[in-house]
Design goal:
three-stranded antiparallel β-sheet; about 100 residues; alpha+beta; 3 strands
Length: about 100
């Protein structure tokens, strides 16, 4: 099978550019959590993690060490985060909530 001249020329140009094509971005490792960074925060996997010293124990089998606290109680971070909506003021009713007086 013979390739027409125009697509063959285009294929040759693309093949010559391949070595200079940028490599895909690699995921960065999170910064080291150590004594010098105690209390620092970093956005790791969409969570605002804090560098803390955590005690190990026999039950967990982990030694005492500095660790990133990325628990579910930590706030989210990064792009795509919606701003928090304020609480309604007293007397203001949320849409879809019907208040009825109590029966006596």
């Amino acid at each position: 099978m013979r390739i027409p001249a125009a697509p063959a020329a285009l294929l040759a140009i693309l093949a010559s550019l391949a070595p200079w094509a940028p490599a895909p971005a690699l995921a960065q490792d999170p910064p080291r959590c150590e004594d010098a960074r105690l209390g620092a925060v970093a956005c790791i996997a969409g969570r605002l993690c804090e560098c803390r010293f955590e005690r190990g124990g026999q039950i967990t089998g982990l030694p005492d060490m500095f660790r990133w606290d990325c628990s579910t109680l930590r706030p989210p971070c990064g792009e795509g985060i919606l701003p928090a909506t304020p609480f309604p003021t007293p007397g203001q009713v949320q849409p879809g909530i019907i208040l009825t007086p109590p029966r006596r």
